[in-house]
Amino acid sequence: MSTRARTDSGARTPTRTRRAAVLAATVAALGLPFLAVPAEAADTGASAPPPRTGFETSRGDRWTTEGEESAFLAAVDRGSDRVSVRTIGTTRQGRPIRLATVGAAGRAGADTGAGTGARAAGARTTVLLVCSQHGDEPSGREACLTTVRDLAYAQDPGTRRFLSRTTVLVVPTANPDGREADTRGNADGVDINRDHIALKTAEGRALAALIRDRRPEVVYDLHEYGGTSPYYDKDLLALWPRNLNTDAHVHDEAHTLSESYVRPAAGAAGYTSGVYGIWTDPLTGKPLRQVAGDGQERILRNTVGVKHAVGLLVETRVEALTEVEKDDHARNQRRRVDTQLAALKGAFSYVEERRGPLFAATAAARHSGYADRGPVLLGGADNDPAEPAEIIADPPCGYRLDPAQYAEFGDELALHGVTVRRDGDGGFVPLRQSLRALVPLLLDGRAAYRLTSGQPVAVC
Questions:
Q1: Closest alpha carbon to 130 in 301, 258, 345, 348
Q2: In 3-state terms, the chain is what percent helix, strand and coil (to 5)?
Q3: Which of 216, 125, 105 is nearest to 165 (CA)?
């Protein structure tokens, strides 16, 4: 877990011209130049220039408002046949949770996630960007909004080739009520990134249905972090699924995404990076202390790992990292967004270069649950072995739900995509299914974040 040497303050906050040059060179090397083309300079063939966010028009002085986001996405939707924008949920305060689907012209929204065989035959990869689950972490949202626009309007061959084989799903604001209030949680104070098992929130339910229906190969979750520790002061931190029920090949692909693509892309653009949850000595680069980043299945990066997608959490630092940034909050905010954009280019490069291994890993993981063997782990992480009490060494063949349990939790099981067989007025949930490892996490009485305690059935 080496860390890159800190650059001086001038390199950490390059001028606009130098940063543009660095990003252009980086993206050109990756073969994906669309993110380096300023919107106003793109050759779109359209009479009207591409729309700009409130963040862009203010040069980072303020974040894009809810109304500006709505108008921006509507304008991109009208201006490009690569984009389709729709509402996938509504918050308690009545705000829409929007999904922008970006693909080749005429194919935006066409990919329905119709199954592993059909997906492989069509050779299209689905990537989901989840932005601002925490309402007081806005930089990822800004990066997601401009990425939708830049993908929609770019005319270069690299972007055309990328979109001919990729569907990019973007939820620009996963927590609209929290973003409006500038709070971590939603309108009820619930942390959405701790609701991907229970699915009690409208926001969590919308994301679960989206993942179930579109079956993305990659889920990229954009966050920010705060802190003043000298051991935790990188521009970017990243972390893959640590839950031990994640298929080994999916886990390894997620690790590759982080360590071979996302962090190097940030470094090439002049930003420092590290592994989320680990303090490192700034002089030696050695890890000092594990402070976060466990294997809880209710956190999105872990949930999607158990659901056989290559997940990654990325976090940019909120606090200013230089004296110049402390004196200029717009510069600090631009650094946060630019770091997200640099890392995101690495993620797209991963997709472009590793489609084969990515398809192979996710397809095999989705099929492996039908083998119906092996333990299920109720705790631990890839850097923290499960205790004996956390291991279901010989899992049952399924769990029976009584009528009251089925009535209360059948909807959540359906949102997860779990197969349930009707059993009188109740239900039976077999382990022999694609989401085999998820079933005990939802229904076993020993699971920390279970929906309910189903009755284990030893023999089917």
A1: 301
A2: 40, 15, 40
A3: 125
**pLDDT greater than 90 at residue 139:** yes
* pLDDT of 324 over the 60 cut: yes
Q: Identify the sign of the CA torsion 404, 299, 109, 176.
A: positive
pLDDT in tens, 76-109: 999 999 999 999 999 999 999 999 999 987 556 5
Residue 214 to residues 101, 204, 218, 219, 302: CA-CA distances in angstroms?
A: 11, 15, 11, 11, 18
CA neighbor of 66 nearest in space, from 150, 153, 130, 138:
138
* pLDDT per residue as tens digits for the range 395-422: 999 999 999 999 999 999 999 999 999 9
With tokens 């060494």, the residue in question is 393
Mean pLDDT of the chain: 89
Residue ranges of domains in the chain: 9-365, 372-457
Cβ pair 209, 86 in contact under 8 A: no
CA distances from 377 to 150, 252, 297 (A): 42, 18, 10
**Topology (CATH level 3) of domain 9-365:** Aminopeptidase (3.40.630)
- DSSP bridge pairs for 170: 100, 129
Encoded tokens for 108: 């935006």
Residue 117, burial from CB neighbour count under 10 angstroms (0-12, 13-18, 19+):
exposed
307-319: pLDDT as tens digits: 999 999 999 999 9
- One-letter-per-residue 3-state SS of 414-452: HHHCCCCEEECCEEEEECCCCCCCHHHHHHCCCCCCCCC
Classify residue 67 as exposed, middle or buried by CB count within 10 Å of its CB (0-12, 13-18, 19+). Answer: exposed
37 near 50, Cβ under 8 Å?
no
Residue 316 is encoded by which pair of tokens?
Answer: 């940019």
Q: Are 425 and 209 in contact (CB under 8 A)?
A: no
Query: How many residues are given for the chain?
Result: 460
Q: What is the CA radius of gyration of the chain?
A: 22
For residue 25, pLDDT beyond 90: no
Confidence class of residue 27 from pLDDT cuts 50, 70 and 90?
very low
